[in-house]
């Protein structure tokens, strides 16, 4: 066996030095990304440049392979993260210029579902940390309270889950959007990492009661079906479920939630990765009393609601308008209109800026052929779709 050239302590010391260098270089690259955003203000160029990103990735992959014997997948994963960060950083800079009053707001009062540690709370922290804003947490017991807290002015923003890749749309939130005066001003997609948490390590057969919000119960239904004799109890949020387990302090109860959040309540993870889907993500929307100005240089989404006549082909006619103006629809959701039996309200997300020529023309046509239409918001898109380099296609 070949003896190592360096001792383990020497290797770890060198790794620490390299990690510090990487952090320094990443910081310098971020500063340059901001300079790129400043340059684009002068030139009015869009934030995303797919051709430039494609060329960069191909060059990096070729150099990494020839000079450093690095794998193409390894390089692509790292630089997809770096490019995503650069894009979001530039978007934030341009958005601050478009909304100067918000950029001067160092603290945001944010209403969300559940207590500290809920998935909505984690999403709130992630979203506003990107904007370098501190949070005043306003936890709410249900979605309607989130809406009312913002509408009344007690909160600046509300964060609401709108759909999940496993359990689908969150209908209660869609129904509330029918009647609120609030505007959608942002979005965030968060990975949801469900696990079982309890006061101490225990065999799964010992669990008699399992607490959580109904959505995680649904998203983990396959795992839960394999547990015998377990009673499922619903709570206002995953955080409230963990608080309940902490308060009961029994060795036969557990909760579904995030492992990091469980630690806030003195709980430990006893079983991870229990969701039906490995890739489990929830999309959240951010609502406020006033709409946000969106720079035309960044990718944007527009969300609107509409109702159509009950004649055959009415919905298809509206969708053909979007097709005619080359507007990509990313979401279509129908919900019943309260008080109007058999009538539905359609919620539509499109990848388009509300003030673009195509979107304005489409909205004008849609207003002529729908019974009701209202734009709920135009906001920066959170999903930075990675460019796949030609060498990996």
UniProtKB/TrEMBL annotation:
Pathway: Amino-acid biosynthesis; L-phenylalanine biosynthesis; phenylpyruvate from prephenate: step 1/1; Metabolic intermediate biosynthesis; prephenate biosynthesis; prephenate from chorismate: step 1/1. Residues 109-289 form the Prephenate dehydratase domain. Residues 8-35 form a coiled coil. Residues 2-94 form the Chorismate mutase domain. It catalyses: prephenate + H(+) = 3-phenylpyruvate + CO2 + H2O; chorismate = prephenate. SMART domains: CM_2 (SM00830). Keywords: Amino-acid biosynthesis, Aromatic amino acid biosynthesis, Coiled coil, Cytoplasm, Isomerase, Lyase, Multifunctional enzyme, Phenylalanine biosynthesis. InterPro entries: ACT-like_dom_sf (IPR045865), ACT_dom (IPR002912), Chor_mutase/pphenate_deHydtase (IPR008242), Chorismate_II_sf (IPR036263), CM_dom_sf (IPR036979), CM_II_prokaryot (IPR002701), CM_P_1 (IPR010952), Preph_deHydtase (IPR001086). Pfam families: CM_2 (PF01817), PDT (PF00800). Residues 303-380 form the ACT domain. Its EC number is 4.2.1.51, 5.4.99.5. SUPFAM superfamilies: ACT-like (SSF55021), Chorismate mutase II (SSF48600), Periplasmic binding protein-like II (SSF53850). It is found in: Cytoplasm. CDD domains: ACT_CM-PDT, PBP2_Ct-PDT_like. PANTHER family: PREPHENATE DEHYDRATASE P PROTEIN (PTHR21022), PREPHENATE DEHYDRATASE-RELATED (PTHR21022:SF19). Catalyzes the Claisen rearrangement of chorismate to prephenate and the decarboxylation/dehydration of prephenate to phenylpyruvate. This is Bifunctional chorismate mutase/prephenate dehydratase. It comes from Vibrio hippocampi.
